[in-house]
Specification:
By secondary structure, the chain is an alpha/beta fold. The longest helix is centred in the first third of the chain and has 25 residues, at 76-100. The radius of gyration is 32 Å and the shape is elongated.
């Protein structure tokens, strides 16, 4: 259908009568009644077969009309002075850092554009953790961190010395991190946000986890609100907008996004030929969110009141962002000519305004009154929908013409003398000219000043300082007794199982534990049945804030699909990014809510570190505690799924996260020992670590734990099985995960070649390497002290080599400890792309099967001069190995 134009209206009088009838309802009965009637008319139209197209965007004006605005509850003049002090100190902090250490970096313009958005929140909305309830969780935009530090400086929380060490934090506790990093300021920052996109998706799942805690009766989060501050350029990241429907589906009206639409990203306009604020309105409204636009300040109100024909609204909506950016830095006469001059009727609207007044027409995000009205609307919505506040601002606002609206403003780190003077004058601060010559000073009016007393009173009324992170937890967990783990240490007398199935059984036992069962959080991205966890559906239920509004198709069966408001399993659907966000929320619950939770997040291992590695790094920064299980792991063990699914490198990626403790397990007793020790380290010793454990889907016998093996299991290596009889030619075989089965067969087959072998279980090359390089460092820095011996070296010293390591991971993983092995070291691994075939064929292809392990041992003996080349060549022929086969890395 063609869009409406006056020319297409065959009965303009009738049309006008309909419009007038709507106006009459609005005037007589109010906007809510008019909206109700419109909704019913649209329903009726659809029932009659019409297809009314309801736009998802509104005009480029404020959502809250002037007559609907609440009275501003604070002292506007005082808050303006406070905001000016904070803005000065934020800019000066970055300037001083880069003046003293050129190239140190920092950002002046982001906070300049968003100062009002934060200050209105600090003074009137953000609830601290020292009042009633858990307080609010605030995801601060990373690049705005100078302004957050500057406010804390005004409050007396940060010293001048700390402010002067911005981005210089090697001396721990003395400086300030570049961005929000909990690991570097553990009692201050809560959420790392500067890897763009992670803050928004994290905040959605944090709001959902708040509801999870409340619905399960673990913590009263009913008064907690999650705020997430985002730049409009960040909206291009898939994670920023990708989970919006989760928030509306789960009715997260405890969540507020504040999008700072300054129209600029790092290099230029976000949507030069479009309108980013309008694009975002459509995306959020289409996803089921409330949208509150705060576009223009109060000095536009009289113009809208005069705009009875809607011509101003029309042109405001039509002008693209690239043009608005140019008009931002234009003088009033240029704005009059190039914008208002688009229509004589708009010129009429401003006929009584001077060019200076036209030039001072502000964007709404810089008006405390308009921002307060927007936040009030956002926080009072109780319609089961999350809310986004879209605030139009100017990047670099108030910093001067070299900064405001400039394409290079994001990269500017310093101000020249004249810019500093002009900035000081705009802010009306008592900083003498002579103090601006070298390093401009921080300005603090004194702790007894009216400004500071006002700030402190507002924070007391709202429950204490923010940002603030809990470091002490009142709830003390009593961990499970050893009997929960005993059956796994004893092994299986008969039958076979995979390590994935073993884990599922252990998880079920932990869930039934009376001490910690209710604090276990199983998280799975739609693969629970694959991992043998479907019994949990009926045992503890799947969390759903709406309960179960349908009768499941398998109702009446033992393992039916049960959703419940107090369900315990977070069944996230096919989203590893969402599942990892839930893991982080659960794994940091002790800091966020004072409620320690024990998450177990299980997924296809290929889609963990490789797919969401940025979140794994963020979990380390946020000091997450919990267990991550990479199931169906191993390049040749998950055999039929092929190249995209077969993980042979996640353990190498795990080595990149300093506080991730990674294990690759072969047997049930290894899993039990690691989980038991992990609970102890994370929840009794309070170590800021999390665990990554890979599990396989290959069934085989689960033996009992060898006597005295527990220490070695946790440190990374232990003797699994000695040779039945030591022969003249002897080797050491190192096995991990499912490849241990090939190693065990190789031990037997080597006897055919007159070679005996001991078998060692290697559970963690990462832990062995970490220990070894720590010893190496100590020896380097303490040349006169006795050098500590790495655990791996100590364990294998005096053991007759060569040493042959075989795993289902790339060779680089065991190779990482090569220089600490006291002898010839032969490494076999699965370098190259995976492919679909039988396990036998894949292991032969990647050269980690029994025959290639035997060959590796014979090759090691040759390197040690214990076998001749001819003997090895004969063995290759006997083993049926084709020496000319394609190299796996080149396939």
């Amino acid at each position: 259908m063609d869009s409406y134009t006056p020319e297409s209206d065959r009965d303009p009088q009738e049309t006008q009568e309909w419009i007038e009838s709507l106006d009459s309802v609005v005037e007589a009965e109010g906007r809510e009644r008019a909206q109700f009637i419109l909704d019913r008319v649209i329903e009726r139209a659809r029932a009659r077969g019409l297809d009314p197209v309801v736009p998802v965007t509104t005009d480029y004006v404020n959502t809250v009309r002037p007559e609907e605005e609440p009275a501003f509850p604070g002292d506007e003049a005082m808050e303006e002075r406070i905001r000016r002090i904070v803005r000065w100190n934020a800019a000066v902090m970055v300037h001083r850092a880069n003046k003293t250490f050129d190239g140190l970096g920092g950002h002046l313009s982001t906070y300049a554009s968003s100062a009002t958005l934060y200050e209105v929140g600090f003074n009137h909305f953000f609830r601290g953790k020292d009042g009633d309830g858990a307080g609010d969780q605030i995801y601060f935009q990373g690049h705005a961190s100078p302004g957050i530090y500057a406010r804390s400086f005004l409050e007396g929380r940060l010293s001048t010395e700390q402010m002067d060490r911005f981005r210089r934090e090697v001396e721990r506790g003395k400086g300030l991190p570049s961005y929000p990093h909990p690991r570097l300021m553990p009692d201050y920052w809560e959420f790392p946000t500067v890897s763009m996109g992670l803050g928004p998706i994290g905040s959605i799942y944090q709001a959902r986890f708040n509801r999870y805690l409340h619905d399960r009766g673990l913590s009263d989060t009913s008064n907690s609100r999650v705020w997430c501050f985002i730049g409009d350029g960040e909206s291009d990241e898939p994670e920023t907008l990708g989970a919006l429907s989760i928030a509306s589906r789960d009715q997260l009206d405890n969540l507020t996004f504040v999008l700072n639409c300054n129209l600029q990203r790092l290099d230029g306009p976000v949507r030069g030929n479009g309108k980013i604020l309008q694009d975002l309105e459509g995306a959020f409204r289409g996803a089921g969110w409330n949208v509150v636009k705060v576009v223009w300040a109060e000095n536009w109100d009289k113009l809208f009141a005069r705009d009875v024909e809607g011509v101003l609204r029309k042109h405001l909506t039509a002008v693209v962002d690239g043009q608005w950016q140019r008009l931002t830095i234009a003088s009033g006469d240029v704005v009059r000519r190039e914008f208002f001059g688009l229509d004589p009727r708009m010129l009429e609207l401003i006929k009584d305004m001077t060019d200076e007044e036209v030039g001072r027409l502000q964007r709404g995000g810089h008006s405390s009154r308009k921002v307060f009205a927007a936040y009030q609307r956002a926080t009072s919505n109780k319609n089961g929908k999350p809310t986004v506040v879209l605030a139009h601002t100017v990047k670099g606002w108030g910093l001067g013409e070299a900064f405001e609206g400039s394409n290079v403003t994001h990269q500017k780190k310093k101000m020249d003398h004249n810019e500093l003077k002009a900035f000081r004058d705009v802010l009306e601060l008592p900083v003498p000219d002579e103090q601006l010559e070298k390093l401009p000073p921080f300005y603090h009016p004194g702790m007894k000043s009216p400004e500071v007393e006002y700030v402190l009173e507002r924070r007391r009324a709202l429950g204490g300082f923010l940002p603030k992170r809990r470091t002490q937890v009142d709830v003390k967990l009593e961990l499970p007794q050893s009997d929960v783990f005993d059956e796994f240490f004893k092994g299986m007398a008969k039958g076979e199982a995979s390590t994935t199935m073993v884990f599922s059984r252990l998880l079920a036992k932990l869930l039934r534990d009376k001490k910690v069962g209710k604090r276990i959080v199983p998280i799975v991205p739609d693969e629970a049945r694959t991992f043998g966890m479907d019994a949990l559906f009926s045992q503890v239920g799947i969390y759903s804030p709406r309960g179960q509004l349908y009768t499941p198709v398998d109702k009446g069966k033992l393992l039916y699909y049960r959703e419940a408001t107090d369900g315990q399993v977070l069944e996230e659907g096919i989203t590893e990014a969402g599942s990892m966000a839930s893991f982080i929320a659960a794994a940091t619950s002790s800091a966020t809510h004072g409620q320690p939770m024990i998450p177990f997040y299980i997924f296809y291992s290929m889609f963990g570190f490789q797919r969401t590695g940025d979140q794994f790094w963020a979990a380390g920064d946020q000091m997450a505690r919990g267990f991550i299980l990479g199931a169906t792991a191993g390049r040749t063990t998950l055999n039929g799924e092929g190249l995209q699914h077969e993980d042979g490198h996640s353990h190498h990626l795990a080595m990149t996260v300093p506080n991730c403790v990674a294990y690759d397990v072969s047997f049930a007793y290894e899993i039990a020992a690691i989980v038991q020790d992990g609970l102890h380290r994370m929840y009794e010793k309070n170590e800021a670590i999390y665990y990554y454990i890979t599990l396989q889907n290959e069934d085989y016998a689960m033996p009992p734990m060898p006597e005295g093996a527990k220490e070695g299991i946790l440190k990374g290596i232990y003797k699994f099985r000695p040779a039945a009889q030591k022969l003249d030619k002897h080797v050491q075989l190192l096995g991990s995960s499912s490849i241990m089965q090939q190693v065990m067969k190789a031990q037997e087959k080597l006897a055919e070649f007159g070679v005996s072998a001991d078998i060692w279980g290697v559970t963690s090359y990462q832990q062995l390497r970490n220990d070894a390089i720590s010893c190496e460092r100590y020896a380097r820095l303490h040349p006169e002290a006795a050098a500590p011996v790495p655990y791996l070296t100590k364990t294998l010293t005096g053991v007759e080599g060569p040493f042959i390591a075989a795993s289902d991971y790339i060779k680089h993983t065991p190779d990482s400890v090569a220089r600490f092995v006291p002898g010839t070291f032969v490494v076999l691994g699965t370098d190259g792309f995976g492919m679909s075939d039988t396990r036998e064929a894949l292991r032969s292809h990647f050269e980690v099967d029994t025959n290639h392990i035997v060959l590796g041992a014979l090759h090691g003996l040759k390197q040690d001069g214990k076998l001749s080349a001819a003997e090895v060549a004969a063995a290759i022929k006997k083993l049926g190995i084709d020496p000319e086969k394609l190299e796996p890395m080149k396939v």
